[in-house]
Write a structure and sequence with these properties.
By secondary structure, the chain is α/β, with parallel strands linked by helices. It is built from eleven helices and twelve strands. About 45% of the residues lie in helices and about 25% in strands. α1 crosses α2 and α2 crosses α3.
């Protein structure tokens, strides 16, 4: 079996277009188109439809996609195992992460790991909680940083509790408060992440019996901060996400207090992925997150 055609097919679906897939793979668009057409001929059914808006999976392509992801994950695990036997920790580790981890944790961990294992490559996917859970479930990543508790069908390791904090405009009447009372979210305009991603704030508010006055929804964490800066409302965000920022907002502890638990989902059993998971755990548990 020539898995390069399946790799091209998967790259095209993830890129959303033949042009972008070709750029990512370092080949021509015609080569990508020819590879997919050849695969469709071998399988006996169409996999994608093409339009000006990009590519879309056919019904048959939808059914085949999970098996293709599993095939590529197995191929990568095989490559890592063979490299380990040869005495080389090589291969590619695919990581799924949400913003705060991608910004504050991954760069120093990657730098240390690359120093020790320079032959390992990385593919980083950045999204929200829902995105990472989906990538873990369908095998798109070898390792995923997740919000816990979680019911994912793989090894999940709790890493750290991260405080949730309120952010309010600098000129807000709450700016001088020692803590932000969560009950105020019932009357103040509240800026929220999309419901599929807003596990942290929703859990804190539900625990306090508070129904927020949500006026704005967005998928972007930093868009929330910008909106609070403009006085459009208040919000709740993890401490790690706010680390080192100099935005024109006030950051306050919550009353009552609330936390999120950051975890690590280990999907792949490949040597490089498992070794990287060890580096993540060491980084967090030895206090390098400060």
């Amino acid at each position: 079996m020539n898995i390069s055609k399946y790799e091209t097919f998967l790259a095209t679906i993830e890129a959303g277009s033949l042009t972008q897939a070709a750029e990512n793979l370092g080949c021509t668009q015609s080569a990508v188109s020819h590879s997919i057409a050849s695969l469709e001929a071998e399988l006996g059914f169409p996999l994608i439809t093409r339009s000006r808006g990009g590519v879309k999976l056919t019904e048959e392509g939808e059914k085949l996609l999970p098996a293709v992801r599993a095939l590529m994950a197995s191929a990568e695990s095989l490559e890592q195992t063979a490299s380990s036997i040869r005495g080389l920790q090589a291969g590619t580790v695919r990581i799924g992460a949400f913003t705060s981890v991608a910004v504050h944790w991954l760069p120093p961990i990657l730098k240390r790991f690359q120093t020790d294992y320079p032959n390992v490559d990385f593919r980083l996917l950045n999204g929200d909680y829902h995105d990472v859970d989906q990538w873990v479930q369908d095998g798109s990543v070898d390792i995923g940083f997740i919000n816990m508790p979680n019911d994912l069908d793989c090894e999940c390791i709790a890493l750290m509790e991260d405080r949730l904090l309120a952010i309010v405009p600098e000129d807000s009447r709450f700016a001088t408060y020692p803590k932000f009372p969560l009950i105020e979210c019932e009357t103040e305009p509240f800026i929220s992440l999309l419901e599929s991603s807003d596990h942290d704030a929703r859990k804190a508010l539900d625990s306090a019996g508070v129904k927020p006055n949500v006026r704005f929804y967005t998928k972007d964490d930093y868009a929330i901060i910008a909106m609070v800066e403009q006085g459009l409302g208040v919000s709740i965000m993890p401490e790690l996400l706010l680390k080192g920022r100099r935005d024109r907002v006030r950051i306050l502890p919550l009353q009552p207090e609330a936390v999120r638990t950051i975890g690590l989902a280990v999907v792949s059993k490949g040597p490089a992925a498992l070794k990287f998971a060890e580096y993540v755990i060491d980084f967090v548990r030895n206090g390098r997150t400060q």
